[in-house]
Amino acid sequence: MTRLLLKFTPDSGRTDLTYFMGKLNVILSLSEALDISNECSFSLYNDQLWMLLYAATGDKEVKRKEHEFNVSFSQSVLWVPGNYIFLFHSGDTILRFDLQLNEHGVIKETGFRQCPKMSDEDILSGALASINAWRTFFSNTPGMMQWKRWLIERLQERAFNTLRAEHRHGVLAYCNNLLVASPSPDFASRNITLLKFLAEIKCEIHCADCTTLYDPSSSNPYHNLDELFSSQVSDDNVLGLSLPVSKDRIYCFRNIWALLEPGWEYVLKKIRSHCPGYYDSAIFSGTQEDIDKLLEREPSLQAYFPQRNRLAIEPYTIEEIIRIFFYEADRSRLTFTPEAIDAACRQLIERFQQGLITHWLWKDIRHYIQNDLLPHYNRRAIAAIQQGVALTEVLDLRPEDL
Q1: Measured between alpha carbons, how far is 194 from 238 in angstroms, rounded to an integer?
Q2: What pairing do the DSSP bridges indicate for beta strands 62-65 and 107-115?
Q3: What Rg do the C-alpha atoms of the chain give, in angstroms?
Q4: What is the pTM of this model?
Q5: d(CA 52, CA 136)
Q6: Residue 20 contacts by C-beta under 8 Å, 6 or more apart in sequence?
Q7: Do 54 and 43 contact (CB within 8 A), yes or no?
Q8: N or C end of the chain: smaller count of CB under 10 Å?
Q9: Is the dihedral of CA 18, 20, 25, 31 positive or negative?
Q10: What is the distance between the alpha carbons of residues 285 and 137, in angstroms, rounded to a whole number?
Q11: pLDDT digits over 369-384, tens only?
């Protein structure tokens, strides 16, 4: 019989708070009928596919006795009421446990099933879990659910191609053309490069800022445009990644609003003549409005971008805002009392429900911390010290600082 037991250890020792920082201990007893190898992994996701915890056999956090595992995750994380997914992966054995954390800090199992190879759970606990870039950045970036779904499907397709190759069938080619709606061109370029790395798309990638492809003041206004399509050097160092190069190329165009300006018709025509093509793929990133105008100007492009390859940065959920808030606060070296953690979460939820912060992006959260929260805390702490309050009493943010 398979059983999963979970226990929280709040950092503060208090068990009466709804929102808290704490560590998780897992005891997993598996049925002896299950085929378990020496290599096993354990991962915890929330329902927005943020990887919160990960451990594997060989880590000091994992203790094993035949078919029983005791996993004491060393990382302390923020616990927010909601749904979670615990995954166990060992060879062909993939188990999914659906969990629900209530407002009283009680977590219970709401579902359990064994998952097949090439399932979402297989990818999340296998191919992706073993890639550090996924664990440390991509899975914990807000507004990325469409990107995550695309990535999971691409890795499933890659696994299918591996099986085809093993049976001496031809490897299928998949569409690499993408339309990326993003409020920030830098954000889009960075994530496109990372997406290519995670999906192991073996091709060159050339990134171009469309505003530089036409210079009417130059003797050769289209010099940069000609250089782009004649270049053989892969511009894949946005994240310092070393990526394989082949004859296939992806051209990533940002600031596509420039292509819609008067006088830029030749640039768009030249781009259109090169990609999308047999070897060359195209990624256009810009605001949703710019993308809509581009497709209206060049309706023939519609056929090259299937709906699944049109990705957007989605509005942040309240849980994503909360997690980024504490991430940025930690980067600013701010610490909170247990009561302040709970109060901060409640205030953010209330403001979100009132529609006051539903538009927030990462930069807005950082701005709030640096320009509102931090100065207010500094003033209170300094005033308290001037009045003779002990330093230890003002080191942590309190609910009144929020």
Answers
A1: 9
A2: unpaired
A3: 25
A4: 0.87
A5: 10
A6: 10, 11, 12, 14, 78, 79, 105, 338, 341, 342
A7: yes
A8: N
A9: positive
A10: 20
A11: 999 999 999 999 999 9
